[in-house]
Amino acid sequence: MNAMTLIVKICGLSTPEALDAALDAGADMVGFVFFPPSPRNISFAIARALGARVQGRAKKVALTVDAEDALFDGIVDSLQPDLMQLHGKETPVRAEEIKRRYGLPVIKALPVSVKSDLERVDAYADVAEWILFDAKAPADATRPGGLGKAFDWTLLQGADVGVPIMLSGGLTAANVEEALRMTRAPAVDVSSGVESAPGIKDIARIREFIRVARQADRRLASPQVASVP
Fold this sequence. Notes:
Elements: E1 7-10, H1 16-24, E2 29-33, H2 44-54, E3 59-64, H3 69-78, E4 83-86, H4 92-102, E5 106-112, H5 121-124, E6 130-135, E7 165-167, H6 176-183, E8 187-190, E9 195-197, E10 200-201, H7 203-221, H8 223-226
């Protein structure tokens, strides 16, 4: 992956067709969910089959929520992920344990609804390879992400969190350019925004999201746009 260009992650993949669409369209990261309450949850058998299809064309990301070591052991054995995405209430100490035990970089998801939520980044800055900002889920939600909800992107304007950030939550082909213009995030992550129903990926939407995101990245990187205050 070229560090100078936008990193696009398609998450919650569960079928060969959707995975192939993401890979063919040039996704940099492909995410797989290991969390039973999610409509995108997959078994180790499916993970093994899908992981084998990637063949180094993208980074494989395993998403978990407050998982025990036994689940991580199964994930590593079946998917052989390149990164671990921790989407629960994992502490910095727990994140460090996981990173050390499996020798894999960590993406730590943090929910955002107000500016002060960004202060939590400091605790993870030395542990996480990436901080993923997602919209804070409602109190009665059964899962912490994948809800198709965006947060106030202006909260990230001018924020220097000291670690690469990934923008998530409610992104679609229709709003990803605006999100990038407002945040200048180096990476975007989409799941429900490329689905026709919860857990059902839409091939056309996957292709369109990646195409529009790349186009937006090129436009925002142009000298004319970059010089605008």
